[in-house]
Amino acid sequence: MCYDDNARPPVPSNATGHSHGEDVVLTAADGNRFAAYIAIPDKPQAAQVIIYPDIRGLHQFYKELALRFAEAGIQAIAFDYFGRTAGLTTRDDSFEFMPHVQQLHLATLFADVQATLNYLKQTPHGKLPIFTVGFCLGGSLSFLSGTQNFGWAGVIGFYAGLSRNMDNQGTVIERASEIKYPVLGLFGGADQGIPAEQVHQLEQKLEETGVKHQIITYAGAPHSFFDRRSAEFANASTDAWKRIFTFIHTNSSK
């Protein structure tokens, strides 16, 4: 599990604006109804993001993360993975997520991504470039969605599982050559579940295909280092925010 109910995203230095957030229910093309949370900035800037949560789905960490993006001028929406199997129930620490994770499929998950994308495009700021940012399982899904024709401006992943093989369609490493959009990957050097060798393999694959990319490893940082409570990794979190905003700015200015 990446984040418990007490985890909170670090606050970026440029989160100086105001925002408001609201829970929404979206509907995919196959009729699946799923929860999402949108955060709208008072002064929108150059982009939007779709947030892919960790293995627990849409819990409080990701709602607050959406607000932090919006306070920096970036409209953000986080969505839940488990509408088909768990409905619209809450995703707090009591939620038994693993049975639902085991029932995830890329095709239906991408249908939910498309519904989220469609919703964003219908908002007043919907024409702005759209990026994805994911954590753990969500990091993997962020990168895998980069193999599809969603039209992203870029894909971002924190500690993305690189050996996860959903539906036997290939791991992130195996499918890296299919990614169509700029990539920003952020990893912890002390992450027990993601060996440095795998991170290097990902980087090599992206080098070979020529897709624009930046892969960063923070020495000594564990999985889930991006947490306001982790004071010893505050510098890594600050740098991660800076790299995200630079990546978004660079790839929005086309």
TrEMBL record:
- InterPro entries noted in UniProt: AB_hydrolase_fold, Dienelactn_hydro, Dienelactone_hydrolase-like
Q: Which Gene3D superfamilies match?
A: alpha/beta hydrolase
Q: Which stretches make up the Dienelactone hydrolase domain?
A: 34-250
An example Pfam family from this entry, by short name, is DLH
- UniProt GO molecular function: hydrolase activity
Question: Which stretches of sequence are listed as region Disordered?
Answer: 1-22
PANTHER family assigned: ALPHA_BETA-HYDROLASES SUPERFAMILY PROTEIN, CARBOXYMETHYLENEBUTENOLIDASE-RELATED
Name of the protein described by the UniProt record: Carboxymethylenebutenolidase
Organism source for this protein?
Answer: Dictyobacter arantiisoli
